[in-house]
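sorry for the late reply, my laptop died twice this morning and i had to redo everyting from scratch. anyway the thing you sent over, i finally got around to it. pasting the sequence first so we're on the same page, its 199 residues, then the predicted structure underneath. double check i copied it right bc i was rushing
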Amino acid sequence: MAVEKIILGIDPGTTIMGFGIIKVIGKNMQFIQMNELQLKKYDDHYLKLKLIFERTIELIDTYHPDEIAIEAPFFGKNVQSMLKLGRAQGVAMAAGLSREIPITEYLPKKIKMAITGNGSASKEQVALMLKSLLSLKTLPKNLDATDGLAAAVCHFYNSGKVVGGKNYTGWASFVKQNNPQTPKGGSKNALTINLRKKK
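ok and here's the structure:
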C-alpha cells in the first residue's frame, strides 16, 4: 500500500507569507491548496509575527501536515530586513515545532534547482513549472503563494535525501542544532539552558 503524507510549504515574509500544501501518495504528488497571508496593511511588526504564528497553526490544525518545508532567508545587505525576515521564519517554525511536526529548511537556490533545474530561475519560471507539474489551471497574481508551494514540492523531491537543508524533528532538535558554541558560563549558553528548562 502506498504511503500517504501531507507536506506544508512556507515562504515566510513580513509583507506576504506564501504557503502551499501537497499530498504525497507513494511517488506521486497532488495539489491541495496554495494561498498567501497579506500583512501589508499592518504597521506593527509584532502583530505581523502574531498573525504569521496563528495562520501557521490554523493551517496545521486544518490540513494536518506530516512535514513542513520552509524557505530559509537569503543573506542581503539590509540588516533590518534580514532581521525581520528571520523573525517571520522563526515564528512559522515555532508553530510547527509546537505541534511536533518535522521541519526542513531549504535555501532559495535549492528550491529553484529542484523545481526547474536552474538555481537562478525567476519566480515566474518556478510558477510556470509548478503549473505544469501539478496541472494547475491558474496561477495567483502574487507569486509568494507559488514560492510556498515550491518549498513543499522541493521537499517531496528531496525526501529521504535532505541536502542543503536543516532538518528539525522537534524543539529539542532545533535547540541542539542551533546551540552556539560559547565559552563556559557565556550568556548564550545560559539562554539555551533556560529554554530547555521550559520544555
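The first strand starts at residue 4 and ends at 11.
thats about all i looked at so far, will dig more tmrw
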